[in-house]
């Protein structure tokens, strides 16, 4: 079992920045690829970014490339999502997720999920 807890969400003006954190406990964090997803009201959950166990080859959805950066610190059992140049369309609940394999963009392929953190970007 892996327990994930997100933090760092909040209200920010367009163009601003936030850094989300996801702290993991339970199984060996470094055994898991980690992903960030988001869900806006009335929309399906959407892949945002993912990173493999060894921090190699992070992957992003096109809409956040160049603005968001995913990273992980295996010593701290934490994955981060640095979000810059935020836009109102980035408003959503952001979730981190873990899977015991290479990363995936498919939400149902992840084994563990956090409770989510709200990000609201005002125009």
Overview of this protein structure:
Strand 4 and strand 5 (46-51) form a beta hairpin. 0% of the residues lie in helices and 50% in strands. The model has no long low-confidence stretch (mean pLDDT 95). Strands 2, 4, 5, 6, 9, 10 and 11 form a seven-stranded mixed β-sheet that branches. A four-stranded antiparallel β-sheet has the order 1-3-8-7, with no helix packed on it. The chain has strands spanning 2-7, 10-13, 18-26, 33-39, 46-51, 59-60, 68-73, 78-83, 92-99, 112-113, 117-122. It contains no helices and eleven strands. 33% of the residues are buried. It is mostly beta strands.
Topology record:
Blueprint: E1 2-7, E2 10-13, E3 18-26, E4 33-39, E5 46-51, E6 59-60, E7 68-73, E8 78-83, E9 92-99, E10 112-113, E11 117-122
Parallel strand pairs: 2-11
Antiparallel strand pairs: 1-3, 3-8, 4-5, 4-9, 5-6, 7-8, 9-10, 9-11
